[in-house]
Amino acid sequence: MASGASVLALQRLVEQLKLEAGVERMKVSQAAAELQQYCMQNACKDALLVGVPAGSNPFREPRSCALL
Q: In what residue span(s) does the G protein gamma domain sit (predicted)?
């Protein structure tokens, strides 16, 4: 029984390694350059860089209601 389980585990491992071998690879330098280019192109849309307009900020301090 134990040898059957180990054979099954090894078959699964071989299948996983075949899947990983088929994955298309790219150089880290190319991926970093593409990531940098994407970040520069979308920087104007990034709320962390340009801020959130005061009117649409859901986290702004609530206005107090003053009744006189």
A: 3-68
Q: Which helix or strand (DSSP H or E) is residue 14 part of? A: helix 2-21
Q: Angle CA(59)–CA(44)–CA(31) in degrees, nearest 5?
A: 115
State the pLDDT at residue 68. Answer: 61
Q: Indicate if the pLDDT at residue 1 is higher than 60.
A: no
Q: How far is C-alpha 5 from the chain's CA centre?
A: 36
Q: Judge if pTM exceeds 0.90.
A: no
- At residue 10, the 3 state secondary structure works out as helix
Tokens representing residue 49 in the block: 């860089």
